[in-house]
């Protein structure tokens, strides 16, 4: 996870605000990187949800479905296997496995991300590009 002393950025995906913003990594090294991931995603354990072949992934709360937080706000990026609960931090990965700036752009993410809010059991609101809406709704109909 080391950034090898190169400045990197990521994208914070916030389903509560239905917003994606560019964020700058302020430190150096693995420990700083993990602490930054935890701070950005409001959690203590992260896991990667990959969405493209370039190594870009959203780091999300690994315990999000079991830690007692409300199961209300999700996001889905085109290419993911399933929606993610809570905030996500999009980063890239180099050939050595180090976290680096993602290859995708903010514009691509904005055009390929859906936000989902569970209003009550069986009722959701989806904010997404029209091409993704039905597919994302179907993921919650199971």
In short:
Helices cover 21% and strands 35% of the residues. It contains 3 helices and 10 strands, in the order ββαββββββαββα.
Number of strands: 10
What fraction, in percent, of the residue positions are helical? Answer: 10-25%
State the helix count. 3
Structural class: alpha+beta
State the separation between the terminal residues, measured CA to CA: 35 Å
Q: Please report which band the strand proportion falls in: under 5%, 5-15%, 15-25%, 25-35%, 35-45% or over 45%.
A: 35-45%
Globular, elongated, flat, extended or rod-shaped: what is the shape? globular
Oligomer: single chain
If you compute it from the alpha carbons, what radius of gyration comes out, rounded to the nearest whole angstrom?
15 Å
Overview of the structural elements:
This protein is α+β, with helices and mostly antiparallel strands. The chain has one domain. The chain has helices spanning 29-41, 106-111, 130-140, and strands spanning 9-14, 19-24, 46-50, 57-61, 73-77, 84-85, 88-93, 99-100, 113-120, 123-127. Strands 1, 2, 3, 4, 7 and 8 form a six-stranded antiparallel sheet that branches. The chain has a four-stranded antiparallel sheet with strand order 6-5-9-10. A hairpin with a 2-residue loop joins β9 and β10 (123-127). The radius of gyration is 15 Å and the shape is globular. The model has no long low-confidence stretch (mean pLDDT 88).
């Amino acid at each position: 996870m080391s950034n090898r002393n190169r400045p990197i950025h990521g994208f914070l995906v916030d389903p509560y605000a239905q917003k994606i913003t560019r964020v700058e990594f302020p430190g150096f090294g693995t420990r700083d990187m993990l602490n930054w991931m935890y701070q950005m995603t409001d959690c203590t354990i992260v896991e990667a949800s990959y969405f493209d072949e370039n190594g870009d992934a959203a780091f999300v709360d690994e315990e999000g479905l079991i830690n007692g937080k409300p199961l209300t706000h999700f996001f889905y990026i085109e290419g993911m296997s399933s929606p993610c609960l809570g905030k996500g931090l999009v980063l890239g990965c180099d050939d050595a496995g180090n976290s680096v700036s993602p290859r995708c752009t903010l514009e691509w993410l904005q055009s390929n991300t859906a936000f989902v809010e569970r209003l009550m059991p069986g009722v959701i609101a989806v904010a997404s590009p029209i091409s993704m809406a039905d597919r994302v709704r179907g993921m919650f109909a199971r």
